[in-house]
Design brief:
By secondary structure, the protein is of the alpha/beta class. It contains 8 helices and 7 strands, in the order αααβαβαβαβαβαββ. The protein has a 7-stranded mixed β-sheet with strand order 3-2-1-4-5-7-6, sandwiched between helices. A hairpin with a 2-residue loop joins strand 6 and strand 7. The longest helix has 16 residues. It is globular.
Length: 223
C-alpha cells in the first residue's frame, strides 16, 4: 500500500468512527460529481473541522471566498445559530446555481447567500450592502489571488475574526522558490503578506488524507 492509499484509508476509518451517517452531505457530493464539477471539495473530515471551528468561535457572520458546489458552505452554515448568516462568493454561474440547489437540499437557504461574480469585484461591494465585520472567513478560491483575498478578509473582519485558508502547501511545492506555477506563487505571496501583517496572528498546519498532501492557514485578527 502506497502512502496516498494509506492516507485515504485512514480518512475513511476516522470518518466511520467519528461521523454519523449524513445523507444530505453525501447527496451534495453526488450532485457535484454528477454535474461534472472538479472533485476539489474539502474532505468530509475537513468539512467537519470547519464546522467545529466555526462552532468554537461562536460565529454569527461567515464569509466564504470560493463556493464550488456549496459543500463547505453547508458545513459552515450548519454551525450558525438562529439568525446567523453566511455569504459565499462564486465566479462560475454553473457552480453557483448548483450550490443554491444544494443549499436548498440542506434546508439552509435562509442562512446562505450565494453571490455570483469575480470575488475581487464582489468583495468591495459587501460593505455597501451592509455586509461586513465577519466573525469567520474561509478562503478557498483561485490561489493566484490569495494575497488580494487576504487583504479583503482583513478589511471585512473585526478583532477576533478567524481567517482560514485552504490548500496552502501545494503538495510541498510551496517551498519551491523557482516554481512557475501561478498557484504556488500566489500562496507564497500570501505567506509573505501574512508574515508582514501585524494585525493578524497566524500559523499553518500540513495535512494528509483523501485529498492528498496539503495544508491550512489559521489566523485570528488582533485587537
Amino acid at each position: 500500500m502506497n502512502l496516498s492509499e494509506k492516507w485515504n484509508d485512514v480518512d475513511l476509518y476516522l470518518s466511520k468512527k467519528l461521523h454519523t451517517s449524513d445523507p444530505v452531505m453525501d447527496s451534495i457530493l453526488k450532485a457535484n460529481s454528477d454535474a461534472g464539477l472538479p472533485a476539489i471539495d474539502v474532505a468530509p473530515n475537513q468539512g467537519k473541522l470547519l464546522y467545529l471551528l466555526a462552532k468554537l468561535k461562536g460565529a454569527k457572520r461567515i464569509l466564504e471566498i470560493g463556493t464550488l458546489g456549496g459543500y463547505s458552505s453547508v458545513w459552515l452554515a450548519r454551525a450558525l445559530p438562529d439568525g446567523g448568516h453566511l455569504v459565499t462568493l462564486e465566479l462560475d454561474d454553473k457552480h453557483a446555481k448548483l450550490a443554491e440547489e444544494n443549499v436548498k437540499r440542506a434546508g439552509l437557504e435562509n442562512k446562505i447567500d450565494v453571490i455570483v461574480g469575480s470575488a475581487l469585484e464582489t468583495l468591495p461591494t459587501l460593505k455597501d450592502k451592509g455586509v461586513a465585520n465577519f466573525d469567520f472567513i474561509f478562503i478557498d478560491a483561485d490561489k493566484p489571488n490569495n494575497p488580494q483575498y487576504l487583504k479583503w478578509a482583513i478589511e471585512l473582519s473585526r478583532p477576533g475574526t478567524v481567517i482560514i485558508a485552504d490548500n496552502v502547501v501545494r503538495n510541498g511545492h510551496v517551498i519551491d522558490t523557482e516554481s512557475e506555477d501561478l498557484s504556488v506563487q500566489g500562496v507564497r505571496q500570501f505567506f509573505d503578506l501574512l508574515s508582514e501583517e501585524s494585525c493578524i496572528d497566524s500559523t499553518a498546519i500540513q495535512t494528509v488524507g483523501s485529498k492528498g498532501y496539503d495544508g491550512l492557514v489559521l489566523g485570528i485578527v488582533k485587537d
